[in-house]
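pinging the channel bc i need a second pair of eyes. not urgent but kinda urgent?? the chain im working w is below, pasted from the shared doc
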Amino acid sequence: MSDSLRRFVALDLHKSYVVVGAVDGQQQVVLNPRRVQLSSFESWAKKHLNPTDAVVLEAGANAWFIHDLLERLVDTVTVVHPYHVKLIAASMVKTDKIDTLILARLLAANILPAIWVPPMHVRELRSLVSHRRRLVKQRSAAKNRLHSVLHRHSIVPAAGSLFSESNCEWWNSLAIPSSEKLRARQDLSIIDHLNVLIVEVEGELAQLSKSKDWGDQAPFLIQLPGIGMLSAMTILGAIGDITRFPSSKKLVGYSGLGARVHFSGRTRRTGGITKQGRRELRAVMVESAWVAVRRHPHWRNEFARLEKRIGKQKAIVAIARKLLVVVWHVLTRQAVDRQANVEAVARSLMNWGAGHRLATRLGMSQAEFVRRELDRLGTGHSLPAFSYCGRAYKLPPPAATEVQI
């Protein structure tokens, strides 16, 4: 359809309302900005929006709900990153009406970079990962408060797990003011309650890791050193669809682990990482990198080499970036890592199957679970058995051919 015959509609989303405005192909205002309450937006949209309209909105709290609603009513729905819009159309005067018309005109000019709209299963995984992260944060805060009690009164912590049920009597016997004893008892109760909630969420993530949406991808991440089930699901949720990254460099940029670069004229310099992108992906890759350098000789040697030249902190970020490149390769090619140690991979798969009784829930033994995932990876054909927690496990016969990258 000719741009002169369609409207370009912009939505400025807020917590309880949305400001709507539109221009035509010649940038003339055809719908003056107006405020519509979110509670009545669906009925307003069905009445006032046309099937030929092009709509744009910024990513935010209600963006996906509005996107799904409008997709059935208009021609196109474009979701853009607020940061990108700010770079394109920074202004000293900012009001809802001005912002709405600027957004509509940028859409009409076709200069807005659209972002990927995650499907429902990706949104659900991201929400579950974020929920677990909030629960863990609350548990850490309660533990820190209890540590501060011991620090204030110069009390040496008890042996063993400080916040376990076996140490409850020790906490109650502390010679501290009654008000602090009350707070300590309630913080211990909070920790116990959060432990139950976190285990429940992790059990749901374990189930999702074998669902039809994620089950074919999860083993290719779990085979990598430093990446377990929780890390794998966090990475998969952040990436969504690996095919939208044509190269590993694009994925590194998306994570914010790429270096800042300034090459202009005679000025040439690089800085720290950009930190632009999905924060949880960046954080989980750094956490996985620390585990990898402790457990895998290849990554340990690589870290030692980098640490001598650039220091410990920069070296671990570099390892995280390199590990993310491997993530891109194994997910894109659906193949086993060329640095993989088959027995170590089998133990990682065993952890996955044993956690939350996942293998049992799938109706198979743990050894059968490991063999099936090794076959999915295309490795371990010559591995008859492996040791796990001091016990030997015999594997069923293999049923796949081996592929490496």
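so Residues 336 and 404 are 5 Å apart (CA to CA). and Residues 120-152 form the longest helix (33 residues). — does that match what u expected or am i reading it wrong
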